[in-house]
């Protein structure tokens, strides 16, 4: 495979290709007849996925450096360049995106009935926007993509969503936008300060990363701005309340993309920007205490609130708060295992929560309700649906042998070395996860079919099996043989850990409050 | 490595293939019952043969060291290197034989028992999957691989308890089992994290080899690790306080109760303590806790079993009680005795469950003929069944004598060795005399409630109903044949480890030595004199006789009335019948408060009121604000936003950069 990819010069054009293909697809969708929109979009998304799949083989797992780099001057006067690249941290975010999009298109097939052409065009534009966020190596370009991707999502929720769609879309937008505005300020300050000190005004990620020490006393505030932007996106407790509304109102593909990919941008942002840019602040004992507590609270809180949701989509939305809490914990523990685990959870959450939202959509399409209480006993009526829902739920619970276990286990075992008490509390999340999902499974699938409307529910169609099949395959594959993924992430993750730890003097062994006074805020110098 | 040992992965793979095949059939050929049965039983029989070959290969090997069979690298992350690997040693060999041997018999029994069930393929798919996970559990060469099996068997238990999921109560019982097990699994996870932090490995061989130099004997760390491990065992093996799921688990088909909830899965906790014997031996406090919890559970569950009317509930509490004995064994450092009792218990308890399954099967059909809604599991509706079912009655009597501890039968030897081991430790610490005493009283009750079960079920006048009685008959051979095989084991299983005062003693002890010798250095040296051993044997004999004869003479089966006419219980009887109201207690103390907290406080107050309405928008009401802004946007004037956006960016640029 590698030989073939080399012979076609794959690594020199792949990033340009995957950024352009969706845009070209979007243009064709808009230009073509509306009836063909979904077919064109599906083909575009499939081509995109196949092209990106070469990354799996041609990615060199032996180096932490950026690969497949693309560099075009854009606004040289301001030090802005269209600079993209992939390393072990972003590789699977890219693949997750390109993998999810064909499924999202296929999952929209019957759900989206009106204004199909703009819908599918927006999905494709969104693809480029999301990929751009994950591969941008220039802060300006990163910010542009970060904002670009907001707009299609806003419309997807606001136009094709449920009854309270405008409220939800706006809430989503305002929350995210508030955060990103702060981040924009932070980027500009960094650009300015670093430029002033080094004499080179550039938005280049590498340049800023190498010279972060010059931000000096700004570091705390800059970190705060980045942190807020990403924390809202994750979303971390207590910035999460936009999520249940957005999820519930969004159409199925919107929820899938939101949960599967958009939320990862928050944690990706932590890994790529917030923590490496400002390691002294990020690993300051007080900050660590706050972040770790928020992460752990999110894990437990999300699970408890998920448990009592009457709406299945809301349940899944709150479960995301819980899952992403593990990711944040893993990132801040900053050990090789916990970082790898965090990345695996990011992948898993895209797969398993994506699948749960697809399943929720399939329930909705059949019965036009999301209320758990409106179902009951349907395992007898729709056995294939029941089998897949059970498997996906088990993966979300983190049953060993499924993907969910690998991520949670690595995060927890890695975090335990740094924060034993917090990790112990986080580990109780495995109990609560079983509670909310099994309660939901029982109320949806088991018992007697006591609503006549449910007697005639059709089981999964072939198209739906094509949507769920790849996700189920990934659940089992990553659960049993995650080594190929772990190997591709390892060197980059290790480099990240080393690079950050090297900049923080002394060992950052952090205890929970009570053992250490909540003293000075983490402003350096 | 002998090739028969290196092929052990085949024993694991075969049940998995059976699961896949039967799972496929359940969707596409649900009526192909013959094929399902052949596959379901066939893969188990084949797995048994492969396992037997592996065990023989191990026995014939030149050295005692364990064999590690690598499959592939599972979680390689820096210093954490977890392979999907199997460990074939003397301990896993015993478990292999129990799981595949008893498992194959129970699969065979199921062919008859489940014959009329509409979901026959799904049943065998789950049962095969269970065996797959159980083999992962006993063969795993590291904690995480064991954990795959550990949680996997819990999953299958969940699926099989709720097998008849259209019955809400059964689905609820499955869920309860899973969640209670998860509480235990939390402990196992914590133990793994601590072990990895201390030793940098999770492979059994490395951890156990490094333990003596890593941990301080009786130190806080090793004590905490073993307590967490034991929490896992408490959940999986249904000990106090996490035992309430097991009696509810009887909602599953009876062969499932025999296989999962008696012979194999629930004994996984005992296996885990025996597997990690080096760690427990280094933590005497934890070991004492294990023994004490085991002894208290043994007695507590036995008292409940005294008063249950549901034949399966009696056996369920009996299982909880017997598991308690096994924990006494591994808790006092008598690892062989614990595993020995695990083995003999697998024979006689599987036999008792399957026998009760035959009874229920026949009772069910009898009531089915007359369309009577009576409970086919209530012993008050039975009586005199020995006439119709002589084979079943005979083999169940053999199992009863075994569990009651009548000399010569298997249970006598294994239980006696556990109690003797506890008694000799009493010399060092008085606590162990208490443990012994609890176990001895529980033994008396065991003999009593088992005799009660047999009397009420098979003897005295029939209470089934005149019309129904005509339909009572012996179960088909495919169900009685496995019973006969198990009966042989129940009677003669004791030969594997005779007490020291008899010739040919201690074969199992010798066999398990390579897996337990690492703990010898940390255990107090105990000496059991021949005189004391004979005395304890005598005491045990008297206890068994007292229990059986007491029940025989005190109970009056001819005075029982059928369930529907039975008077309400009062006083202590009622407390026992209601299992000390522990389920009600857990509901009031844990379940309801958590639900209340989540709904009333976290969701309605914290999320909606504090964060959304107060936090985000100060004094105002954010929903109204968003609603208002949303109506502005509904005019379609989106460009307003875009303009605002651009102005904002320009403003920021000009102030900060300028």
* Terminal-residue CA separation of chain A: 52 Å
What is the makeup of the main sheet of chain A?
2 strands, antiparallel
Report the order of strands and helices of chain B.
HHHEEHHHHHHHHHHHHHHHHHHHHHHHHH
Based on CA atoms alone, the radius of gyration of chain A comes out at 22 Å
Biggest protein-protein contact in the assembly:
A-B, 69 and 66 residues
The major sheet of chain B is characterized as:
2 strands, antiparallel
Gyration radius from CA atoms of chain B, angstroms: 28 Å
The share of residues in extended strands of chain A comes to: under 5%
Model description:
- The complex is a heterodimer of chains A (525) and B (658).
- Chain A has 525 residues and is mainly alpha-helical.
- Chain A has 21 helices and two strands.
- Chain A has helices spanning 2-7, 10-31, 37-58, 88-108, 116-135, 139-160, 165-198, 205-210, 219-233, 242-249, 252-277, 279-282, 285-307, 312-333, 336-367, 383-397, 403-416, 420-427, 429-445, 462-480, 483-503, and strands at 67-75, 80-86.
- Chain A has a two-stranded antiparallel sheet with strand order 1-2.
- In chain A, strand 1 and strand 2 form a beta hairpin.
- In chain A, helix 15 (336-367) packs antiparallel against helix 16 and helix 17 runs parallel beside helix 20.
- Chain A starts with a helix and ends in a 22-residue tail after the last helix.
- The relative contact order of chain A is 0.10.
- Residues 508-525 of chain A have low confidence and may be disordered.
- Chain B is mainly α and 658 residues long.
- Chain B contains 28 helices and two strands.
- Chain B has a two-stranded antiparallel sheet with strand order 1-2.
- In chain B, helix 5 runs antiparallel to helix 6.
- The longest helix of chain B is centred in the middle third of the chain and has 36 residues, at 335-370.
- Chain B is globular and about 70 Å long.
- The N and C termini of chain B lie far apart (76 Å).
- Residues 634-643 and 652-658 of chain B have low confidence and may be disordered.
- Chains A and B meet through helix 7, helix 13, helix 15, helix 16 and helix 17 of A and strand 1, helix 6, helix 7, helix 26 and helix 27 of B.
């Amino acid at each position: 495979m590698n030989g073939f990819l080399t012979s076609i010069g794959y690594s020199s054009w792949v990033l340009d290709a995957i950024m352009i293909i969706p845009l070209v697809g979007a243009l064709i969708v808009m230009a073509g007849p509306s009836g063909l929109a979904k077919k064109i979009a599906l083909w575009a998304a499939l081509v995109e996925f196949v092209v990106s799949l070469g990354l799996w083989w041609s990615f060199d797992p032996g180096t932490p450096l950026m690969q497949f780099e693309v560099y075009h001057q854009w606004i040289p006067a301001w030090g802005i360049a269209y600079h993209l690249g992939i390393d072990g941290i972003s590789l699977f975010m890219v693949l997750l995106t390109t993998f999810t999009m064909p499924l999202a298109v296929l999952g929209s097939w019957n759900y989206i009935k009106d204004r199909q052409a703009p819908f599918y065009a927006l999905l494709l534009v969104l693809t480029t926007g999301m990929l751009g966020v994950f591969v941008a190596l220039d802060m300006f370009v990163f910010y542009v993509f970060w904002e670009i991707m907001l707009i299609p999502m806003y419309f997807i929720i606001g136009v094709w969503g449920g009854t309270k769609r405008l409220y939800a879309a706006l809430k989503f937008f305002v929350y995210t936008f508030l955060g990103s505005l702060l981040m924009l300020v932070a980027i500009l300050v960094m650009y300015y300060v670093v430029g002033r000190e080094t004499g080179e005004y550039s938005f280049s990620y590498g340049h800023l990363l190498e010279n972060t020490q010059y931000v000096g006393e700004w570091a705390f505030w800059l970190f705060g701005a980045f942190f807020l932007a990403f924390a809202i996106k994750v979303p971390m407790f207590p910035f999460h309340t936009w999520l249940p509304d957005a999820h519930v109102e969004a159409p199925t593909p919107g929820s899938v993309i939101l949960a599967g990919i958009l939320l990862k941008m928050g944690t990706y942002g932590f890994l790529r920007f917030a923590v490496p840019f400002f390691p002294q602040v990020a690993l300051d004992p007080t900050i660590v205490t706050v972040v770790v507590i928020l992460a752990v609270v999110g894990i437990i809180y999300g699970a408890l609130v998920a448990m009592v949701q009457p709406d299945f989509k809301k349940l899944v939305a709150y479960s995301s708060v819980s899952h992403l809490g593990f990711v944040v914990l893993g990132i801040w523990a900053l050990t090789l295992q916990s970082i790898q685990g965090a990345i695996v959870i990011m992948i898993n959450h895209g797969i398993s929560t994506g699948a749960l939202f697809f399943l929720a959509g399939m329930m909705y399409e059949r019965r036009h309700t999301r209320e758990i209480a409106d179902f009951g006993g349907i395992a007898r009526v729709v056995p294939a649906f029941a089998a897949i829902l059970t498997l996906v739920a088990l993966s979300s619970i983190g049953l060993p042998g499924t993907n969910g276990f690998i991520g949670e286990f690595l995060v927890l075992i890695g975090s335990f070395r740094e924060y034993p008490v917090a990790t112990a509390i986080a580990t109780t999340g495995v109990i609560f996860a079983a509670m909310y999902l099994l309660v939901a499974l029982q109320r949806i699938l088991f018992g007697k079919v006591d609503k006549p409307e449910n007697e005639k529910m059709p089981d999964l169609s072939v198209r739906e099996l094509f949507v769920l099949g790849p996700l189920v395959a990934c659940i089992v594959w990553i659960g049993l043989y995650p080594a190929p993924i772990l190997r591709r992430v390892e060197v980059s993750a290790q480099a990240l850990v080393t690079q950050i730890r090297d900049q923080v003097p002394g060992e950052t062994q952090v205890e929970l409050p009570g053992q250490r006074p909540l003293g000075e805020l983490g402003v350096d110098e | 490595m002998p090739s028969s040992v290196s092929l052990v992965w085949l024993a694991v793979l075969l049940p998995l293939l059976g699961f896949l095949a039967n799972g496929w059939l359940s969707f596409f050929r649900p009526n192909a019952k013959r094929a399902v049965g052949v596959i379901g039983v066939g893969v188990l029989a084949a797995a048994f043969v492969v396992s037997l070959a592996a065990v023989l290969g191990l026995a014939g090997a030149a050295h005692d060291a364990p064999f590690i069979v690598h499959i592939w690298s599972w979680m390689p992350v820096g210093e954490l290197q977890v392979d999907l690997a199997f460990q074939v040693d003397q301990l896993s060999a015993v478990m292999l034989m129990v799981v595949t041997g008893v498992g194959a018999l129970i699969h065979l029994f199921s062919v008859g028992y489940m014959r009329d069930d509409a979901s026959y393929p799904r049943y065998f798919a789950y049962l095969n999957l269970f065996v797959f996970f159980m083999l992962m559990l006993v063969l795993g060469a590291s904690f995480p691989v064991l954990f795959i099996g550990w949680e996997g068997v819990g999953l299958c238990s969940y699926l099989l308890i709720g097998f008849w999921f259209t019955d809400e109560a059964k689905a609820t019982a499955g869920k309860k089992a899973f969640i209670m097990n998860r509480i235990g699994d939390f402990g196992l996870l914590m133990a793994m994290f601590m072990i990895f932090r201390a030793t940098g490995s999770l492979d059994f061989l490395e951890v156990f080899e490094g333990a003596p130099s890593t941990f301080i004997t009786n130190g806080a760390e090793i004590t905490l690790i073993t307590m967490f491990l034991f929490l896992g065992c408490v959940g999986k093996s249904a000990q106090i306080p996490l035992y309430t799921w097991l009696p509810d688990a009887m909602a599953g088909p009876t062969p499932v109760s025999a296989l999962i909830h008696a012979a194999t899965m629930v004994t996984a906790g005992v296996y885990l303590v025996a597997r990690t014997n080096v760690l427990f031996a280094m933590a005497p406090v934890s070991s004492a806790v294990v023994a004490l919890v085991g002894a208290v559970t043994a007695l507590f569950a036995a008292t409940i079993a005294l008063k249950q009317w549901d034949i399966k509930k009696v056996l369920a509490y009996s299982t909880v009680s017997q598991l308690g004995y096994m924990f006494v064994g591994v808790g006092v450092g008598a690892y062989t005795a614990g595993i020995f009792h695990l083995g003999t218990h697998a024979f006689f308890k599987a036999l008792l469950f399957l026998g009760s399954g035959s009874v229920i099967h026949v009772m069910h059909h009898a009531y089915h003929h007359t369309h009577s809604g009576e409970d086919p599991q209530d012993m008050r509706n039975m009586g005199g069944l020995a006439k119709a079912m002589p084979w079943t009655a005979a083999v169940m009597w053999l199992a009863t004598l075994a569990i009651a501890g009548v000399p010569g039968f298997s249970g006598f030897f294994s239980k006696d060795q556990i109690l003797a081991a506890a008694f000799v430790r009493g010399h060092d610490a008085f606590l162990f005399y208490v443990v012994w005493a609890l176990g001895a009283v529980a033994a008396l009750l065991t003999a009593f409630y088992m005799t009660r079960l047999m009397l009420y079920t098979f003897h005295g006048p029939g209470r089934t109903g005149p019309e129904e009685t005509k339909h009572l008959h012996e179960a088909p051979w495919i169900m009685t044949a496995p019973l006969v095989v198990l009966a042989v084991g129940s009677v003669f299983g004791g030969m594997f480890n005779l007490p020291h005062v008899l010739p040919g003693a201690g074969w199992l002890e010798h066999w398990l030595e390579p897996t337990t010798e690492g703990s010898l250095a940390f255990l107090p040296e105990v000496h059991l004199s021949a005189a004391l051993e004979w005395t304890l044997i005598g005491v045990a004999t008297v206890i068994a006789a007292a229990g059986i004869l007491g029940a025989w003479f005190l109970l009056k089966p001819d005075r029982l009335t059928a369930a529907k006419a039975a008077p309400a219980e009062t006083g202590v009887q009622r407390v026992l019948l209601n299992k000390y109201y522990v389920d009600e207690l857990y509901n009031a103390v844990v379940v309801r408060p958590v639900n209340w907290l989540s709904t009333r406080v976290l969701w309605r107050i914290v999320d909606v009121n504090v964060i959304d309405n107060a936090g985000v928008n100060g004094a105002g009401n954010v929903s109204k604000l968003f609603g208002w802004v949303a109506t502005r946007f509904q005019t379609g004037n989106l460009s307003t936003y875009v303009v605002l956006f651009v102005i904002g960016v320009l403003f920021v640029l000009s102030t900060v950069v300028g």
